[in-house]
Amino acid sequence: MRIGVITFPGSLDDRDAQRAVRLAGGEPVALWHGSHDLEGVDALILPGGFSYGDYLRCGAIASLSPIMSEVVDAANAGMPVLGICNGFQMLAEAHLLEGGLIRNDHGSFICRDQVLRVENASTAWTSEFEAGQEIIIPLKNGEGGFIASEETLDRLEGEGRVAFRYVGVNPNGSLRDIAGITNAAGNVVGLMPHPEHAVEPGFGPDTAAAMRSGVDGLGFFTSVIRRTLVEA
Question: Catalytic residue numbers?
Fold first, then answer.
């Protein structure tokens, strides 16, 4: 399975996302933000970083990059799309996901291993998990506070579109402890934590078993690969 990882000016986790795809058994395809060619990929990842220096609003300028017109069309046609951190911000700015992301309520950049609860295990990117399962995923952001109107929040909750929720501590003031959401179809998912940093023993979060042993993030990438192969 070919999974495209788009590099924007200021992306810094694109290579990590490519490695995660490879470790999960997929073929990573490097895509450039200035292109209109998705090169026949089966899924897309918008990686973390500081696209365009986070000027204007995080993800706002990147959401207008040439390739995003193809991303929007592909997402609306059902292609799986994952937005991680800055990629989540882009998806919100491109109106592929509802709500928005603002400055952390404590005003500081935060970096920590974060416990998440999987709320929706039926999306293209979460089918390898179980609803209610708790996983540990690294988090690093300065503008990760998820916001939306009460009406939108109620709809997201009612439709089962909250994909992940923070457990133990809310690191950025996200409303209702929301760490990630999905679109109505379940093919587009965005989250602030970084699953690509928890895919290989020795380089992931600490767990009760051993230091740096956490690989909970690998499930995101195996989910989309296996789901796509089954549907094919």
Answer: 85, 194, 196
